[in-house]
Amino acid sequence: MQADIEAVRVAELYSNHPLLRNMPIPHFRLPTVELDVPVAIKKMEEPSSKETVRGTPTLAESRVVFDKVLAKTLREENIRLKSTQTKNLKAALDRKIVSLTQPTEVSVDVNRIAKELSSTASKTLVSSGLDTKTKTKLEEKIAKLARIEFQNLRTQPTRLKVLVNTSEIREAGPIETITRIHLKITEEAFEWTSIESDGKKEDRLIIE
User: Fold this and answer.
1) pTM as predicted
2) I need a labelling partner for 109 at 20 to 30 A (CA). Which of 18, 36, 118, 172 fits?
3) Is residue 53 part of a domain?
């Protein structure tokens, strides 16, 4: 991320300079570099019983927030449900939540949860008399708002304290105690290009 920010900063400097704007942007290409980084885990923070491993919200928390988003959206769209429709909607969401249940050590995909719950809600509403056009619009709105609220529920994930110095790793014990992180890194060059659309000229920074 920091490399991209710096690349954009340099590109903007060249673009705004009368003499440099037509010159190639300084860059370098980095072919695929593979790194094998050994680390020794010294200590791991233990999450509380109510926290997930990666700091994502639990399904129970997601369901509570989703219900609030759904209720608010229905009010904004002036959609009023009968008691039977409300009951059917709740039952459908309950079944969907159960089907999405995973082991506690598996991170919850908030984007998938938002999509699955909003789709379930809209399908149930269609069966209750909601037209297809309104259903599509409602589903997209609910999913978008739910994703935002789910992201706000994220907490700091549990952290690992590791040893990375060569001497510390050597003293950590047998090779079986060492964790190896394998990384692949690439870096591409950028250039400015101009695109005309509807009579308007737009400058874009793209990968060469």
Assistant:
1) 0.53
2) 36
3) no
